[in-house]
Design a protein that fits this description.
7% strand, 3-stranded antiparallel sheet, 1226 residues
């Protein structure tokens, strides 16, 4: 039987069971044709009835296989009614309780009962027609065919002539006559229904016709517009535009005047405005400008909704019409701007001039437009320097301007003036004089260009496929069959998803026309095929325990946005321009090229050409979640598989591959999408040997782009934030955008330097880890065990006589086993990703681009494989560029090894070096026989890094000249309680400084050793912990005073209604993202999602988090400043340098130089009046506003000002002593 269009035939599908249920007029025609075979009679009637029966079977199969409630019904035993979904409402991040997709609803039951009744009727009719056919055949055999032919003549219903009683004509014709009557009646009903449907379709067409002419609230403007529409030819509308520009903004109606101004809009209002603006912009990107105009006109015509509209929204639509040269529509938008009481800005005039340029308007109209622009205080040059127009659009605007002013010349391309960071801490970094020896990469120019092309291809593809390191299964017949089944299923799913996405687009387009909340334009940024591929990739990596719908929705929305951004760059000329510029940039880095007076990478890139194109504005978080939720629901609804894959040909039942359930996570109820166990089992049997990653999740194959701005840097095409934050948080981005560019140079250059470090995989360590990983793991060494090693729940059932205590114990044991299994799966997956990427990058050079958090702390962007992870993750990495050990490098390798063992923490460096020589036999044995020897390395605190160091030492000592041995091994130097070091330096606390190694000493100091015993029993632990912290407070008296001042300042600031802000010593603006949660609801579908958006300055601050977070966050901003200063000065001296917060890495040969730089920059940092600078900034930021009319508020502000100016007194500690402290970082 041919497969129905739009219904892919899955393995085990019963042909007609994939048919879609007929609806509308088509349903009526199907019902007519299948239930009234007319005068065909006999076998024809039977065939028609059987066809109807098959159609109803198909509808039932679809209802029971394809509906949202199909999963539970497919699993219910025959004859057993399914339970109703539990109802409830639980708000919060995890959303409201809704009916699960696994539960039937009443409408589904009603439809199914209706279909069942129809099925019974049709079955009875088939039996009747079969009996009739037998009677006819019998009559024919006795030679009464003539009578049958006579009765078969076409006659009007009810006019058939009756033969003699009991004849064959009566026996053969009564059913034909009855069916003929039914057919006539059904045809008449069909005609009536079609007529009604035509009328309704016309009504809907009128209802959803896109509006063009606006409805103005101002009566005078509305009258003028009506007059012009009726009496002025369309070609003369330029006069109307000039009149509109000259008109002062209209006074708003009282109803609108009462609305809150944009600056004081509520959080919810701001969220709605963000969504609406993003919707309009996306409509322009996807060529749905009439829809954008329709929505704008509809909102403008309703006074309450007009309050959401901003000038940016009107400008967006104006710019769209300008690009098309649609003058009348553009004038309509100007009417709305004036009606809303807004004043056109530069972008408004740019749109008008662009439209005039495309239509070649007369000179006088253009000149009057320019004159009005000047009267509004807007400069003509600003059209070419301050408005984000494309190059072609600027040319059209210039054409219009030159028609009125032929001698006008636009200013040269906006090259920012040479700005120099004025921070005294960075004066030496940006000094033109002084020797510099910036490091070069070890690769020649052609190799780097080839690596760039590989990275570009990878980012254009948006995903990377990597071979899995899981032990490959033997390709048995079962495995091969499972893989073939998966391949066939995925092909069918891709087609089904495309159809499902088309239906979703149609539904969302209708919602957009009626101005309801919709994601229609966002669905159009990628093709159905691309979205289907994205959804199938998501399905592939979903863990067996499932994932929260909210998290999955956000990930899907982000991936759509990222793919869209890459495509936009590809379709424009940006990729070609990037390649030309990057090839020139590589001359600075390549080993075989030279640049005169080499600058920093950012400076060199800046000198190569004009600034990059405007960045893609990210979609608001509610849009991302709503888009991802809709896509996830399509995945749940469409993707189905046979219920039994053991005998697929015998199974007609289709079950959802994903189902929606509710679960408790951390005492909260959340909705989860889980893969069906049958699908999980199929994946396990197939044991496919590939993993798919997003391009931005994988280390780069070429040096990252230098960070140039808060929007430009790191990956070639994939969008990356300079400052990582929770999605939807805009406050950090606003601060960075408003910050003078030169103030960020220190942070930008430090991040670029960290990203320029080339890495490679330590192959010997990787082989040993893989050997354990593919066996049964080794949790003691950080190699997770496979799921087969997870504890099993108790077998068997308890007897009926079991006590409640026994039952509770079994439940606890089952819960424990499930929890352990989930944790083991998570750890195993994390290790699988890391090791698979390491194997993929074996024998390759790669780079790790960096960004920072809101405090300035730096992090590598690729999440799965970097040096910020565990002991195992760090041991897999080494520098791609080696350095000879030199005279002291081998000693530093030995000291580093002893540090990794944790055995000589309180011993001087000389004692650690002697200890390394004493255990050299164990070191060499560990290097030569790591799994079969004495296994000394396994007892270290950091065993895998210790083993890697053992191997490096073994190679070095066995060379003829260890000083010439080229080492790639990174040696670490850790700060001693780095947070307390900064506190002691801020307060010039001599006692505290001595306890954290700021003072020179013969032995390393341990701040905890003098205040508590090293070992204590549990019963005494709470007492001892209290004693530890009491003693620490006595030792660090200056620290306690600073902490109290910071805490109290933050408390008063947040009580005044503001979040705490400050600027780091390197100029990074910081704001604490702790606000009262604002709930955002995404309703409908399988579950309503309610999530918190707590990261904007319009929301009230969370006082508790603000005051508790300020002291540690401020100290973290200082340690990040110290790290960045060290990185920049090491780069200036030609060192390779990376860090993990307060742990600094470099080559063994350069440890002494790095330590010297580290100490010098700490002294330089704390020589600044950090606390006094902070006090001045806070007073200016929070106490310099106008006095409040409320006396109580003025009293509060006075108290805040007094507190901020009461900077704690400092002690007499001499910072210069830090330069001579061996164990400051060691």
């Amino acid at each position: 039987m041919p497969r129905a269009s739009g219904a892919p035939l899955l393995p085990g599908n019963c042909g007609s069971g994939a048919l879609l249920p007929p609806r509308g007029p088509f349903a009526a025609s199907v019902a007519c044709e299948t239930t009234t075979p007319g005068r065909r009679g006999g076998a024809g009637a039977v065939r028609a009835a059987r066809a109807a029966l098959r159609a109803v079977c198909g509808m039932l199969a679809l209802r029971w296989g394809h509906s949202a409630s199909g999963f539970r019904r497919a699993l219910w035993p025959a004859g057993r009614p399914g339970p109703l979904a539990e109802e409830g409402a639980l708000s919060g991040v995890w959303g409201r309780r809704r009916r699960s997709s696994a539960s039937p609803c009443e409408q589904d039951h009603q439809r199914d009962w209706g279909h069942a009744e129809l099925l019974e009727v049709l079955e009875a009719r088939v039996r009747q027609l079969q009996a009739e056919c037998v009677s006819e055949a019998t009559v024919k055999r006795v030679g009464v065919a003539q009578g049958l032919r006579a009765s078969a003549r076409l006659q009007p219903p009810g006019k058939a002539q009756a033969g003699p009683e009991g004849t064959a004509e009566e026996l053969g014709g009564r059913w034909a006559q009855k069916l003929d009557q039914e057919k006539f009646a059904m045809q008449k009903r069909k005609q009536q229904l079609e007529l009604k449907l035509q009328v309704r379709a016309q009504q809907l067409a009128c209802e959803y016709k896109l509006r063009v002419a606006p409805r103005l609230l101002d009566t005078q403007l509305a009258g003028r517009l009506q007059h012009w529409e009726q009496e002025v030819p369309e070609g003369l509308w330029e006069e109307q535009l000039v009149w509109l520009l000259q008109e002062a903004p209209r006074k708003l109606s009282p109803e609108v005047e009462q609305a809150p101004k944009a600056g004081s809009a509520s959080v919810q209002q701001e969220i709605r405005q963000q969504r609406l603006l993003a919707f309009l912009e996306c409509c322009l990107l996807t060529d749905h400008l009439p829809l954008a105009h329709h929505v704008l006109v509809t909102y403008h015509g309703r006074s309450r909704q007009q309050q959401r509209l901003t000038l940016a929204m009107y400008n967006t639509v104006m710019l769209g019409w300008a690009r098309k040269g649609s003058f009348k529509e553009l004038v309509y938008v100007f009417f709305m701007v004036k009606d809303a009481g807004l004043t056109p800005d530069l972008l408004s005039y740019a749109a008008a001039l662009q439209c005039m340029g495309r239509l070649d308007q007369d000179t006088s109209t253009i000149q009057r437009c320019l004159d009005q622009m000047a009267r509004d205080g807007l400069k003509l040059q600003g059209l070419f320097t301050s408005v984000p127009l494309r190059q072609e659009e600027q040319a059209v605007v210039l054409k219009a301007v030159r028609k009125a002013q032929p001698t006008f010349s636009p200013p040269p391309p906006p090259r920012p003036p040479p700005q120099v960071n004025t921070s005294p801490l960075l004066r030496e970094i940006y000094a033109k004089s002084g020797p510099v020896s910036y490091p070069k990469l070890h690769l020649p120019l052609q190799s780097l260009q080839k690596l760039f092309r590989e990275q570009l291809r990878m980012e254009l593809a948006t995903t990377v496929t990597v071979e899995s390191v899981e032990k490959a299964r033997v390709p048995t017949e079962e495995v091969l069959q499972a893989r073939d089944t998966l391949k066939q299923l995925r092909a069918e799913w891709a087609e089904a998803l495309c159809l499902g996405l088309q239906e979703l687009k149609a539904s969302e387009a209708q919602a957009a026309r009626s101005c309801r909340s919709t994601i229609f334009p966002y669905l159009c940024v990628l093709s159905e095929r691309e979205l289907a591929e994205l959804l199938l990739q998501t399905l592939q990596v979903l863990p067996p325990q499932g994932e929260s719908l909210l998290s999955l929705a956000q990930q899907l929305g982000l991936r759509v946005f990222n793919r869209h951004t890459v495509q936009r760059k590809q379709l424009s000329s940006q990729v070609r321009a990037l390649q030309r510029r990057y090839y020139r940039y590589l001359h600075l880095l390549a080993s075989d090229t030279q640049v005169a007076a080499p600058p920093l990478p950012r400076q060199y890139w800046e000198a190569l050409g004009a600034p990059a194109a405007p960045h893609e504005q990210p979609w608001p978080l509610p849009v991302l979640v709503q888009l991802g939720k809709k896509l996830a629901e399509v995945l749940v609804e469409v993707v189905r598989m046979p219920g039994s894959l053991v005998t697929p040909q015998g199974s007609c039942t289709l079950i959802p591959v994903l189902y929606h359930v509710y679960s408790f996570r951390s005492f909260r109820q959340i909705g989860i999408l889980k893969p069906h166990p049958a699908f999980t089992e199929l994946l396990a049997v197939a044991a496919e040997h590939t993993l798919t990653f997003e391009a931005a999740e994988v280390p780069m194959l070429c040096p990252p782009l230098p960070w140039m701005s808060p929007h430009t840097g790191a990956f070639l095409l994939s969008p990356t934030k300079l400052m990582r934050s929770l999605e939807g948080t805009m406050q950090h981005q606003r601060l960075l955008d408003s910050c003078p560019p030169a103030e960020l140079h220190g942070a930008l250059d430090a991040l670029t330097q960290l990203g320029n470090c080339a890495w490679r995989v330590n192959g010997r360590v990787l082989d040993l880890v893989l050997e354990l990983f593919t066996a049964k793991g080794c949790p003691r060494l950080g190699v997770p065990a496979p799921p087969s090693e997870a504890p099993r729940p108790p077998d068997g059932r308890l007897p009926p006589s079991a006590s409640s205590a026994q039952k509770a114990e079994v439940r606890r044991e089952v819960a424990r086993c499930l929890k352990v299994a989930r944790e083991m799966h998570s750890l195993r997956s994390d290790a699988l990703y890391r090791l698979s990427l390491a194997q993929h990058l074996r024998d390759r050079v790669f780079w790790l681009p960096h960004n920072m958090d809101f405090r300035g702390r730096t992090y590598p962007c690729p999440p799965h494989f970097n040096h910020l992870g565990s002991d195992l993750a760090r041991a897999l990495l080494e520098f791609a560029q080696g350095r000879p050990l030199g005279p002291h490098g081998l000693d530093w390798l030995k000291i580093h090894l002893v540090n990794l063992t944790g055995l000589k923490k309180h011993e001087p460096l000389r004692a650690r070096l002697l200890f390394a020589d004493e255990v050299m036999d164990d070191i060499l044995d560990s290097a030569d026989r790591p799994m079969t020897g004495r296994k000394w390395w396994m007892e270290a605190d950091e065993p895998w890094q210790a083993l890697a160091c053992c191997m490096e030492i073994a190679r070095a000592v066995r060379t003829a000249d260890p000083t010439a041995y080229v080492s790639h091994f990174p040696v670490h130097q850790d700060g001693s309680c780095n947070g307390l070091q900064h506190y002691a330096a801020l307060g010039r606390d001599s006692v505290g400084a001595a306890s954290v190694n700021l003072l020179p000493s013969d032995l390393p100091q341990d701040v905890y050793s003098g205040v508590a015993a090293q070992e204590f029993v549990w019963e005494a632990s709470h007492y001892l912990v209290r004693q530890v912290f009491n003693s620490l407070q006595e030792m660090f008296s200056g620290t306690r005073a600073i902490q109290h001042w910071l805490t109290e300042s933050a408390r008063l600031i947040s009580h005044a209604g503001s979040a705490v802000e400050w600027v780091t010593p390197l100029g990074i603006p910081v704001i604490q993202p702790y606000h009262q949660d604002s709930k955002v609801l995404i309703s409908g579908g399988i579950q309503s999602l309610t999530f918190s958006q707590s990261g904007d300055t319009t929301q009230k601050p969370n006082t508790l988090k603000q005051k508790n977070g300020f002291p540690p966050n401020f100290i973290h901003s200082l340690d990040s400043s110290h790290m960045m200063l060290t990185a920049l000065h090491c780069y200036r001296k030609g060192l390779t340098f990376v860090s993990v917060h307060d742990c600094f890495w470099t080559h063994a040969a350069d440890v002494e130089v790095m330590n010297q730089v580290c100490r010098e920059q700490f002294v330089q940092l704390h020589s600044q009046p950090i606390l006094h600078n902070l006090s001045r900034f806070l007073v200016k930021r929070f106490c310099s506003g106008a006095r409040s009319p409320k006396h109580s508020k003025n009293v509060w502000l006075g108290k805040l000002q007094d507190t901020l100016k009461s900077v704690p007194k400092t002690g007499a500690f001499d910072l210069e002593q830090v330069k001579h402290s061996t164990y400051f970082f060691s």
